[in-house]
Amino acid sequence: MNIARQAAPRLAFFLAVFVVIFAAMTGPTVAAGVGTVTAYAGTWHTHIVYYATAESKARTEDAHLRNDCWQSAGYFACDQFVDGTSKALVVFTYDSASNVYHTYAIPSDGTPASSGQLLISGSRWTFPWQVSDNGKTTYGRVINIFHGADTIEYRQEFSDDGAHWTVTAAGTEHRVSH
Fold first, then answer.
1. Per residue of the chain (178 residues), what is the pLDDT tens digit?
2. Could you list the residue range(s) of the whole structural domain that residue 142 is in?
3. What CATH number has the domain bearing residue 110?
4. How many domains does the chain have?
5. pTM for this entry
6. 55 near 4, Cβ under 8 Å?
């Protein structure tokens, strides 16, 4: 089994975490810097449809997410609860020179943390990553399209060449309380 397939369930979980973190953002009108993610705090309902692909199995998931967040200097952190259980502490930093957010998800089960980037272009927010196995690279990304402060559409995709993408999941997030 290749690493991409072994890592897919874990990557999907952390990508879902990242997607929800930015659900409250509205694209270019949001303040710059790590403070951008302050709009994330609150409770959200998420609905995800996973498609049958080489990297995913068909299924649907609904969850309630509660984000307990705080900022300290150049860090913004959220303890993310999924259906009432703390799943990950997600820490954000911002590199103003490159306009890139860096994300660090620390699972509550003690497994190793993961890190990633967030690239913003208007209301499109992209979390890219790649996994290599025996010289073969699989690319992945989550794309968020924001519709105001309380709704986001998103999709998760993979590619063997970084140019032609297959959607593995798509969904919506709706804020239910602040």
1. 343 444 444 445 454 554 444 444 433 334 468 877 776 778 999 999 999 998 889 999 999 999 999 999 999 999 999 999 999 999 989 999 999 999 999 999 999 999 999 887 777 889 999 999 999 999 999 998 889 888 889 999 999 999 999 999 999 999 999 8
2. 3-177
3. 2.40.128.20
4. 1
5. 0.78
6. yes
